[in-house]
Structure formats: C-alpha cells, structure tokens
C-alpha cells in the first residue's frame, strides 16, 4: 500500500469516512426526510466554502417544495434551542463536523 506524503493518506481516509450524511434528529416523514437530506448534501457540496449560500439554497428550495417559513442553520460548533412545527425538523451532520439544522416555523 502506498503511503501519502505529510499525512495526506490519513486526510483522504478521514474525508472518505465522514462524507456521508448522519442524521442526529428528525421528526419528518420518510419521504420529506430523504428529500431534505439530499438537498442538504447537494447544497453543502456545491458551496463548500460558503455556508450562507448553501443555507440560502436549502431555504429557497424548501419554501418552494413544502411551503414557506423554513429556516436553515449551517456551521460548526453551535448550539440551538428552537420552536418548530411538528414533523418539520431535521438536524444532521455532513462532512465530519459540519452541522445542518432545517426547521419550519410559521
């Protein structure tokens, strides 16, 4: 097995292991959960270095698909306490330490 220089092998292994979405909490229906999770992954991959644009993309898509008043927070190392509509919350991790919280509150 070839060794990578300066720990690049370890970094590649880490990225491969942590590139899948991990749902921490949700109360969404199965169909909505899958669509929202796929949307979050797409947005985070498209806007790797700009969480604000990723959040905007997710919010606008959710508003269009499931009605208005969706909210999105993307980042690392934050806490939250929110009020949300029942069956309209998704909290997940992607890419290791990047958290995404999507909820509806009208």
TrEMBL record:
Which UniProt keywords are given for this protein, alphabetically ordered?
Cell projection, Cilium, Cytoplasm, Cytoskeleton, Dynein, Microtubule, Motor protein
Q: Which GO terms describe its cellular component?
A: axoneme; dynein complex; microtubule
Superkingdom of the source?
Eukaryota
**GO BP term, pick one:** microtubule-based process
List localization entries.
Cytoplasm, Cytoskeleton, Cilium axoneme
Q: Which InterPro entries match?
A: DLC_sf, Dynein_light_chain_typ-1/2
- Residue spans making up a coiled coil are none
Assign the protein's first listed, main location to one coarse class: cytoplasm
Which family is annotated? Belongs to the dynein light chain family.
Q: What the protein does?
A: Force generating protein of respiratory cilia. Produces force towards the minus ends of microtubules. Dynein has ATPase activity.
Q: How does it assemble?
A: Consists of at least two heavy chains and a number of intermediate and light chains.
Please identify the protein, giving its name as recorded. Dynein light chain
**Gene name of the encoded protein:** LOC113039928
């Amino acid at each position: 097995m070839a060794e990578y220089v300066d720990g690049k092998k370890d970094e590649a292994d880490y990225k491969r292991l942590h590139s899948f979405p991990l749902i921490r909490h949700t109360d969404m229906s199965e169909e909505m959960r899958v669509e929202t999770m796929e949307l979050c992954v797409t947005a985070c991959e498209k806007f790797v270095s700009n969480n604000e644009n990723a959040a905007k993309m997710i919010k606008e898509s959710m508003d269009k698909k499931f009605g208005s008043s969706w909210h999105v927070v993307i980042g690392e190392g934050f806490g939250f306490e929110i009020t949300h509509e029942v069956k309209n919350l998704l909290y997940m991790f992607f890419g290791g330490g990047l958290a995404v919280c999507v909820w509806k509150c009208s």
